Amino acid sequence: MTVDRELGQIADAIDRAMHRISTAQTDPSWEHVEWLRLKADLLDRLAAAQRGAGQIARRAELIRDRAERMADELSRIIPATPPGQHRAEVVQLWAEGSRGAAER
Question: How far apart are CA 32 and CA 70, in angstroms?
Fold first, then answer.
């Protein structure tokens, strides 16, 4: 239990240290994507010390997912979500549009 708590404290310290920089940018950028990937990698290393299970591994996965969504938006693979619209709706519309374009 003590090791898990200490690893959690280290993960919290990483969050605090990286929070200011990641929240300073309002628009997604490749630098921000790489920053999030770095944060996820650091948390993955902590999760490995925790034998790959637990809260730290879940945090790393969520951060990596966020980084990959941002990368998709920057690559224009998936459009950014307009205000008031759910992301799943945007992905569905994008898929339908892509399928229609491929059939033409």
Answer: 9
